[in-house]
Model the fold of this input.
Amino acid sequence: MTTLSRHWHPIATASEVTAEPRRFTLLGTDLVAFRGDHGLSLFTDLCIHRGVALSLGFIENGILHCGYHGWAYDGTGACVKIPSLPPGSPIPPKARAITHRVEERYGLVWACLDEPEQDIPPFPDDEWNRSDYRTFVSHHYTWETSAGRAVENFMDISHFPFVHEGTLGSRDATEVAEHTVEERNTGLYYYLEAPEPASLHSGADDVIRWEYFLTGPFTIHLRKTIPSGDQTLISLVAAPTSEKTTDMFLWIGRNYQLDPSEDGEFIDFTHEIMEQDRLIVESQRPEQIPTNLRDELHLRIPDASGIAYRRLLGAISGAGPFLP
Done:
């Protein structure tokens, strides 16, 4: 059975990891990340000598030095100098930092705390690398909720007329059409097609296609396609930092208005939507999702994606403190 520690989770945007050590938290574990002599490095934020946080140290010539006694660690985690010993003294083999897998991809720094069972979640159609798409990291939020709650909200379409009235939905169109949630090896896929509510446009009804691509446990892409072929891709990955706190990273992609100077309106609109969601999601109790379907009331059609998602989360061993 899979565990959360065997999945890749982001800890920061690429620009947030520099040549100075900085603390990050994932799955309740404090980490220190920096760019040094071996490129990108990630350790448990703990000096093996006396348990001091390495993030309080400093970098010299690409080497991380503990701020307490100056023990020096190279980018592989090996201790290469103990200042209190005479020059040339052997360094104990156990003098190593606790290292973790780390990669930079899609504008984020990703960590895996155990042997990864799959790759970093890709974009649905490689939108990050396509020249006909403008895709970028747009937001980094911290919400007081579980990662499961944050993702489930993103998957849910029936709240649009109420939480996002006038932007994504209207109370003159609240019914959710029946749809099929397809279970895939790495997650879920489903789509809905519906006319845009009359209150949101001035012309004839336009049928909008909403497609959702979930790569378990916490990466979700929403692609909106209008009849002209214009597509907007809003993507979210939620990183469980602690039991009730989640770091969330968003990307925005589109196949129109490709000039970066156009980004501002998309950033502002997405922030408005996310703030509306945050107020709702942070009020949910319990913060963790109950994966036992008997613990909350579900409706077969409007909650189809949520039901499938809870089943997916329920198959993750030891995830209880961070989601259900």
Notes: The two ends are 16 Å apart (CA to CA). The chain has two domains: 4-112, 127-314.
